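[Help] Beginner question about ligand-bound structures

Sorry if this is basic. My supervisor gave me a protein sequence and a SMILES string for fe (ii) ion and asked me to "get the holo structure". I don't really know what that means in practice or what format the answer should be in. Inputs are pasted below exactly as I got them.
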Amino acid sequence: MAVKNPMTSDFLHSAYCGESMAHMRYLIWGEVADNEGLPNVARLFRAISYAEQVHATNHFREIGGKTADTTVTAGGVFGSNKTADNLQGAINGELHEVEQMYPVYLNAAEFQNEAGAKRSFNFALEAEKIHAKLFQKALDAVKSGKDIELKSIYICPVCGHTILNEPPEKCPVCGTSKTSYVKF
Ligand SMILES: [Fe+2]
Ligand SMILES: [Fe+2]
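Answer (accepted):
No worries, everyone starts somewhere. Holo just means with the ligand present. The predicted complex, written as structure tokens, is below.
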């Protein structure tokens, strides 16, 4: 079902753009981390990049409707510096989504009775909370001159839920089964 209310629709467009840019930015920053000899930070960027792709895809689907042109504006972080700077940029972006953007968008969708958008915003909000913590852990390691210690990273392909080491029997956010999780 396509979104009906223009305000929630605008928020979906903006969130779609923000997630699309985060997806791409994390791929770029993953390459930078690889070049700095930080393969686990690079893998973390790639895994979380995939989670942002899941969010962008969900928002895109909720916009729905007919194929049409539109112009969208979304805040984006630019610049590719040292990995420590990039990780701080990533943390700032994730915290903006957790503390301001998604709570506001979620409230608007709830107020306007947009069930699909509400679901999509909630999926993203829950994953971004985890992303902020993981990027902080990576930054702490890099600041002490080391790569982050990481085994496997698992991403839920439906909601972007992100977890280290082992996927749960069922995704705690959307209920998707363990076997569907994508491993990085
Ligand atoms: Fe994120
Ligand atoms: Fe999920």
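A couple of things worth pointing out: Residues 156, 158-159, 161, 171, 173-174, 176 surround fe (ii) ion (ligand 2) (CB under 6 Å). The chain has a mean pLDDT of 95. Feel free to follow up in the thread.
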